[in-house]
Design brief:
Blueprint: H1 2-15, H2 17-26, H3 31-73, H4 90-105, H5 112-118, H6 121-126, H7 137-140, H8 152-170, H9 180-194, H10 196-205, H11 208-212
Length: 222
C-alpha cells in the first residue's frame, strides 16, 4: 500500500494540482480513484479521437470536392485554394497560405492534395458559417445528400459542437463530465448525412459506446 500511495502522490504532483482538481473533487480527494478516472478520461479521449478522425477526413474531402466542382463550374482559373474571386474571408485565405507553407517546409510540393490535408478542422468548420450562407453553402449543401434538409445550420451545428469538443481533446482536458453520448451522436449524424454506408462502416469499428460503459464514476451527463 505504501508503494501505491507514493506512486499516486508522485503522479499527481507531476500532473499538477490544477489539472487534477476536477478529478480529485469528483472522487472526494481519493488519490487512487482520481487517477483511475484520469486514466479513463484518456481512454475515452482516444476513442473519440479515433472516430473523429474518420469524420474529419470525410468532411474535408466532401467540402473540398464540392468547392472544386464549384470553382470549375464558374470557369475560374487555378484552384479554389487560390480563391481568385476572394469568396473566402481573410482568415481562411491566411490558413491556406500557412498550410502551403507547412507543406513546403516538409520538402513537398504544395499541391491541392497536400495543402488540403494540412488545413485544420476549424478551417472546414468555418466554411459552414452563416457568412457563407448565400455564397458557398448552395454548393456545399450537395455534399450532404442524406441530411433531413438543405438548411446550413443542420450541418453547422453538430460540426460546431464537435469542433469545440475536439479542442478539448487536443488539450487533454476533462471530458468525463461532458455530454459524451450527444457528441457521439453528432459524429454519427454528420456521417449519415454524407453517406449512410460511411456511418455504418465507422460505427462498426467505433469503441466509444463500449468505453462509456466502463467509466469508474457516475457521469453528470449521458
Amino acid at each position: 500500500m505504501t508503494g501505491d500511495h507514493q506512486t499516486n502522490t508522485a503522479v499527481l504532483a507531476v500532473m499538477s494540482t490544477p489539472r487534477m482538481a476536477d478529478y480529485l473533487v469528483k472522487c472526494h480527494y481519493d488519490r487512487a480513484a482520481a487517477l483511475e478516472l484520469y486514466a479513463w478520461n484518456s481512454l475515452a479521449g482516444s476513442a473519440y479521437w479515433e472516430t473523429l478522425g474518420h469524420l474529419e477526413i470525410a468532411l474535408r474531402n466532401v467540402l473540398a470536392s464540392r468547392l472544386a466542382v464549384r470553382h470549375q463550374t464558374k470557369g475560374r482559373p487555378g484552384s479554389w485554394l487560390d480563391d481568385p474571386s476572394q469568396d473566402l474571408d481573410t482568415t481562411a485565405r491566411e490558413e491556406i497560405r500557412k498550410a502551403r507553407q507547412r507543406v513546403r517546409r516538409k520538402g513537398k510540393h504544395a499541391g491541392a492534395g497536400q495543402t488540403i490535408s494540412e488545413l485544420t478542422f476549424g478551417f472546414w468548420r468555418y466554411l459552414l458559417a452563416k457568412q457563407y450562407n448565400t455564397t458557398l453553402w448552395p454548393s456545399l449543401a450537395s455534399g450532404f445528400p442524406h441530411a433531413p434538409s438543405r438548411a446550413r445550420h443542420t450541418i453547422e451545428q453538430p460540426i460546431k459542437r464537435l469542433h469545440q469538443f475536439r479542442n478539448r481533446l487536443a488539450h487533454h482536458e476533462p471530458i468525463w463530465n461532458k455530454e459524451l453520448t450527444q457528441r457521439q451522436q453528432d459524429i454519427y449524424d454528420v456521417l449519415t448525412y454524407i453517406d449512410p454506408h460511411l456511418h455504418s462502416w465507422v460505427a462498426k469499428r467505433c469503441r466509444i459506446s463500449a468505453v462509456l460503459l466502463t467509466c469508474p464514476v457516475p457521469r453528470p451527463h449521458p
